[in-house]
Structures are given as structure tokens and as C-alpha cells.
């Protein structure tokens, strides 16, 4: 299915030595995922059991919603809760009762653990079981941790989706489950491509509503659209589903390879595949070529942040002409990241985890043309004359599949163009 694609490099990065480091790290916590998940799941509510800090993080990351009833909130743990003076479970029950009475539209309630709830060892799984018994079948109550002690920011989505897998209905039907929260418009493009290929039935996790009937069983195959879903991947395998390993659908090549893995599983002919993908592939290639003019020949350094780093490095090196100096990822999972590592030409240092000071030293020594990193590192590096791209933007912006490939390249090109304009034509 991929015969007209650029051949893989003679030596990819899958077996390259990985620099593993554990030390201080600079990333957002898993609560951040609520910002995109609450938009995706239209009948869900995310109740963070946390502190005022957690509430502030959510408010500032999401923007204060004045005109709409938000689908997230924080049950604040006060000092007396943290000191163990109150029955936190009874207080949580009261909060949930008030919330569900006021918001009859809520069908799925996620209790989201935080650093404070973990420190006082508040057992949210017990709370979720108790509340499910109280409110089922109208409301399903689940729990997961978004705590900064346990999760980096994209792991919040992974923890949320993994919490849903055990309660998905069982099926014996052969179906495809596509896993990962995408903006609706991008998800619709993907579903339309799969329908044109004749692949089905297709379900998406997370679904927009609880009634979408995502079901899983021994004849289910699943494809990930996000590379940070390792717990969800493991949970689906425990339910008997089989993973279709493939590069991620970022850029023209990644999208084609991702679709090809599914098409091959569902017996789609090469002719049908070519007919369906030819026009969008051409559009994607043209859009990338236009945007990548500023990227060609430039070097890029990835700090570990979103777990999108490996597929992005594959896209930037193979489709945009960049050279990767270091590709850092919080975690590397061979089954999930292996197909992208196979395509990433040997050369860059692959690193897993972070000791931020040592990594900053490597970055300063390399002086890359572009550094992809978290917000906390971007400003100091800009002050030192390095161009940066905020990793979090890549999670908030539609970047997957053919029609977004040009926008994805543009996101990286923008800081380089800005620098060229500021510094004049010599750069
Ligand atoms: Fe901060 Fe932890 Fe709350 Fe995240 S969960 S906002 S890291 S206190």
C-alpha cells in the first residue's frame, strides 16, 4: 500500500542507543488534557479533586468561560481536608450531588485526581464505584489521575481513555476503533477517508457522547492517532483487541502509512487506496512544500514534552528537509513509536526522560535553528537567541491527516520566518 512513498532510510533510529535520563523536568501536569477532552466529550464533566492551584491552572489554560456552563470544575480540598480533619469522601459526595442536580445533561462524570488528592491518599476509585452505584444508569462515574506527580500533560488524556476501556461494552463483531481525541473537523475527515476506503464499522474513542456504542472484543482492531496513549493501548489489549502498529497520521507520509496499515488489515485493494488517497496526498504534498521552504536545511532539537516528538521529527526530517539534532520524548514505547523510529533517518540523539539542566547544556552547545520545548524553557532560550516552538501548541492545533499537513509545517516555519524578518536577509 505504500509503494509510491519515499523509501525508508537504510538505517532508522529504532535500534539507535537511547540516552535515558531522570532528573528535574519541565512539563505541565495531566490536568491540562481536560482542556481538549471536555470539548470533545459533549456529555462529560471533569471534576478535579484538587487545590486552588489546580483550579487556577485549568482556568488560565482554558480561558474563563463567561457565557457557557463549563464542563469542568474543581472540588477544592481545603487545609482541613489536607490535615485529615474532614471526611473528604462525604464532602465529595455532596459536591457531586449538587453538580448532578444542577446539570442533568451530564452523562459521564470523571473524578480527576491531583497532587493534593494523592498526597492525602484519597481513594477516588472507591468514590467512583460508590457514586456509580448511586447514579447509574443515568450517569457513569469514572476516575483517573491528572496529578503532576504521576503524569505529564498529554498523559492526562491517556489516563482518561484508559479509565474508559474496562467499562466499554463487549462485542464479537469485527470493528475498528480509532483511539485519540481529535478536533471534530479532523475526525470527520478521517472517518470520511475510512468510509471511502470501505473500512468499517469504525468507532472512535473518546466518542462525542456516551451513546456512541464504542464496543471492544477479540475481533476488534485499533489504531492510535496520538503517540501518548500507552496505558490505553495496554488496556485495549487486555480486552482482547489487536493494535495496528503504524506511523502516526502527521504529514502526508505518516497519514498515508497510517491509512495503509488499516487498508491492508481490511483487504482494501491498491487501486481503491490510490483512488481515495491520490488527490488529498497531492494537496498535502503541495501545502507542505510551500510551508517547508523556511525549514529546508535547518536543524531542530526536541525537548521531551508532548510525546509527539518522534513522529514530528520523522515529519520534519523526511517531508520538510530538516535535520534532527536530538529527539527527546518523555517515554518511548517500541510498539507505539517503533514504526516512526524506523522511518527517522539515523543521526539524531534519541533521548528518553529528562534531566533538564544537562539537556539545556546539549541544546546550547548544538545551537539548533529551532528548539521545540515547553513554555517554561522557551522564553529563556529565546533570550539566548534561539528560535523556539511551544510543544503545547501542537496539541491544541489541528495537525493530523492530509488537510492539516501544510498547517503542521507552517507551525514550525513561523518562528524561523519571524527570525529571518527580524534579523534581515543574511540569515
Ligand atoms: Fe499543580 Fe499538581 Fe494541581 Fe497539576 S495536579 S495543577 S501539578 S497541584
TrEMBL record:
Pfam families: Oxidored_nitro
UniProt keyword annotations, A-Z: 4Fe-4S, ATP-binding, Bacteriochlorophyll biosynthesis, Chlorophyll biosynthesis, Iron, Iron-sulfur, Metal-binding, Nucleotide-binding, Oxidoreductase, Photosynthesis
GO molecular function term, any single one: oxidoreductase activity
UniProt entry tagged with the keyword Oxidoreductase: yes
EC number assigned by the record: 1.3.7.7
Cofactor note: Binds 1 [4Fe-4S] cluster per heterodimer. The cluster is bound at the heterodimer interface by residues from both subunits.
Cofactor: [4Fe-4S] cluster
Reaction(s) catalysed (UniProt annotation): chlorophyllide a + oxidized 2[4Fe-4S]-[ferredoxin] + 2 ADP + 2 phosphate = protochlorophyllide a + reduced 2[4Fe-4S]-[ferredoxin] + 2 ATP + 2 H2O
UniProt domain Nitrogenase/oxidoreductase component: residue ranges: 29-406
Keyword flag Transferase: no
InterPro entries referenced in this protein's UniProt entry, alphabetically: LIPOR_BchN/ChlN, Nase/OxRdtase_comp1, Protochl_reductN
Binding site for [4Fe-4S] cluster: 29, 54, 115
Recorded coiled-coil stretches: none
Pathway: Porphyrin-containing compound metabolism; bacteriochlorophyll biosynthesis (light-independent)
Assembly notes: Protochlorophyllide reductase is composed of three subunits; BchL, BchN and BchB. Forms a heterotetramer of two BchB and two BchN subunits.
Family (UniProt): Belongs to the BchN/ChlN family.
Known role: Component of the dark-operative protochlorophyllide reductase (DPOR) that uses Mg-ATP and reduced ferredoxin to reduce ring D of protochlorophyllide (Pchlide) to form chlorophyllide a (Chlide). This reaction is light-independent. The NB-protein (BchN-BchB) is the catalytic component of the complex.
Entry protein name: Light-independent protochlorophyllide reductase subunit N
Source organism (scientific name): Pseudosulfitobacter koreensis
